[in-house]
Specification:
This is FAD-dependent oxidoreductase. There is one protein chain. The protein has 15 helices and 21 strands. With about 475 residues, the chain is of the alpha/beta class. The strands form five sheets. A seven-stranded mixed beta sheet has the order 8-7-17-18-19-16-20. It has helices at about 10-15, 55-65, 105-115, 140-155, 160-165, 175-180, 185-190, 195-210, 220-230, 235, 250-260, 315-320, 385-390, 425-430, 455-470; strands at about 50, 70-75, 85-90, 95, 100, 120, 130-135, 135-140, 240-245, 260-265, 270-275, 280-285, 290, 295, 305-310, 330-335, 345, 355-360, 370-375, 400-405, 440. Among the domains are: about 45-85 and about 245-325 and about 415-470, FAD/NAD(P)-binding domain (3-Layer(bba) Sandwich), CATH 3.50.50.60; about 145-240, Polyamine Oxidase, Chain A, domain 2, CATH 3.90.660.10. A hairpin with a 2-residue loop joins strand 3 (about 85-90) and strand 4. The longest helix has 15 residues, at about 140-155. The protein binds flavin-adenine dinucleotide (FAD). The site of flavin-adenine dinucleotide has 42 residues, from helix 2 and helix 15.
Length: about 475
């Protein structure tokens, strides 16, 4: 068990080469539809499916299509794989600029790790924790604070054993969900009439998951995590139990390698047209690719940037307008701070400019490397502002250097991890999982199970491949 602490990935953070075609081979492949009746060159019929996006969902869909004997083409806007997963190096350490941690109940992810022989590692347990109280921030021993947080969270998610009787089939008790799905996390906290002390212990964490404001996150989004974790705080605390030793991008790469896909980087898709027989995909450069089917595995927030014809079904269109990837606060910040701050975790209060911090490593020169998530109003590009925000919790230290990945202002995600808004599960979930003609949708923003996770992205990639494969 991870440190016996509730101080997990979400509570604390909450936080390439491939088989690319050779340069110059990116010429447009005219689709049969556009070929104006002329003979179809052989290369045009090369791909059985086009997968848009090379994150966990896209590479999984590509690999599953390959396993069904089909040839996938992957089109990726960035110059790298991984999307909201990005393993890099900074300050001499391997750093995850996006998703990092695994819960032991990530069944699909662990299956993939085993398949490709990738190992996981765990971080040392925190020694102390700073939490807000009505009298200001206080430092606690984990064994004191963890049970107190657990007791409050159990109240927040009370009822979820009934309404999420089957955590991986969230709509199994849709009848019971009608009363809870419209509730925001904030509405639930208000209804519970918690003491000021209890509220301070959990509000910051819940607001962080919702992108900075607990009114934006659905109670059911986090209650489903609670259910997937086994309805206990011990389970919840396991959300940061492990990370992938070689980095999360290593698993994305392994899956993509197995897909034996042709991958084109720097290839943003601007339009996807389904003429009933084939799907024609247009890129920003005007190149066109076609295949019998396509899987759209870009972040749900990005669907609205692609022109679909026929147009997106009503619920898909609504979902992408509302967004599922959290906003406006989803920057992952790696901070090199002066001195040895110890293995300390920090949870800010709702509205604090630093939402949460977790320790990562002690550097050889004695400085410490910490991971933080931003809260409302922080200029994440200004070290002095970040330093001032950190000093609120750790007055003795100084931010010497930082590496920040702001997923909300990232052009290809325009939001952070997936987290449904109030009412979105019942209004949108079943419909957005449905294909639109020859086009299926995948992503960590729309799984049945773990939303906002690797596990959810893998689940959805498998589903989408299964939906389109029979149409080829
Ligand atoms: C800060 C942060 C922390 C997180 N922490 C965790 C964690 O600890 N554990 C966990 O399990 N999950 C975590 N997550 C969530 C997890 O990273 C995501 O759920 C998952 O990686 C999403 O995968 P995806 O394939 O659905 O989307 P993405 O990874 O976003 O992949 C989509 C791909 O589509 C591409 N794309 C976008 N538009 C276009 C276009 N027009 N044309 C072509 N390509 C396009 C993008 O460049 C991207 O590569 C975190 C996320 C963030 C942001």
């Amino acid at each position: 068990m991870h440190s016996g602490s509730s101080l997990n990935r979400r509570s604390l953070l909450k936080a390439a080469g491939t088989t690319a075609l050779a340069a110059g081979a990116a010429s447009a492949l005219a689709s049969p539809a556009l070929a104006g009746g002329r003979a179809v060159p052989e290369e045009e019929a090369r791909y059985d499916a086009i997968v848009i996006g090379a994150g966990f969902a896209g590479v999984t869909a590509a690999r599953e299509l390959r396993n069904k004997g089909l040839k996938p083409l992957v089109l990726e806007a960035r110059d790298r794989i991984g999307g909201r997963v990005w393993t890099s190096t900074w300050a001499g350490e391997q750093v995850e600029l996006g998703g990092a941690w695994l819960h032991p109940n990530y069944e699909l992810t662990y299956k993939e790790l085993n398949r490709y022989g990738l190992k996981t590692i765990s971080d040392a347990a925190p020694e102390k924790a700073i939490y807000p109280t009505p009298a200001g921030y206080k430092t606690f021993a984990p064994e004191e604070i963890v049970p107190r947080i657990g007791a409050v969270l159990a109240k927040v998610f009370d009822g979820s054993r009934q309404y999420f009787e089957r955590p991986r089939e969230p709509l199994y008790r849709a009848d019971l969900l009608k009363a809870v799905d419209p509730l925001s996390l904030r509405a639930r906290l208000d209804a519970l009439k918690l003491s000021a002390e209890d509220l301070a212990l959990v509000h910051g964490e819940l607001a962080t998951y919702a992108g900075g404001d607990s009114r934006d996150g659905a109670l059911t989004a986090l209650a489903q995590w609670w259910a997937l974790c086994g309805w206990t705080h011990e389970g919840w605390a396991q959300m940061s139990a492990a990370r992938i030793e070689k980095g999360a991008s290593a698993l994305v790469q392994s899956i993509l390698t197995a897909a034996q896909a042709t991958v084109r980087f720097n290839t943003p898709v601007t339009a996807v047209a389904d003429d009933g027989k084939r799907v024609v995909v247009t890129t920003a450069s005007g190149a066109k690719f076609s295949a019998p089917v396509a899987v759209v595995a870009v972040p749900l927030n990005m669907w609205k940037k692609i022109q679909f014809s026929p147009g997106l079904p009503k619920v898909h269109a609504e979902a992408t307008q509302e967004g599922v990837g959290v906003k406006p606060n989803a920057a992952k910040m790696w901070l090199r701070v002066s001195g040895d701050v110890g293995r300390i975790v920090v949870q800010g209060n709702a509205g604090d400019p630093i939402a949460a911090m977790v320790p990562h490593a002690r550097l050889s020169n004695g400085d410490s490397l910490m991971i933080a998530l931003n809260g409302p109003g922080l200029n994440v590009n200004d070290r002095a502002s970040v330093d001032a925000a950190v000093k609120k919790f750790l007055p003795q230290t100084r931010v010497i250097d930082m590496k920040v990945q702001d997923w909300v202002n990232d052009p290809w995600s325009q939001g952070g991890w997936g987290m449904r808004r109030p009412g979105q599960m019942l209004r949108q979930l079943p419909a957005i999982q449905q294909p639109h003609g020859r086009i299926a949708f995948a992503g960590g923003d729309l799984p049945s199970g773990w939303i906002g996770s690797f596990e959810g992205a893998i689940e959805s990639g498998m589903r989408a491949a299964g939906q389109v494969a029979p149409l080829v």
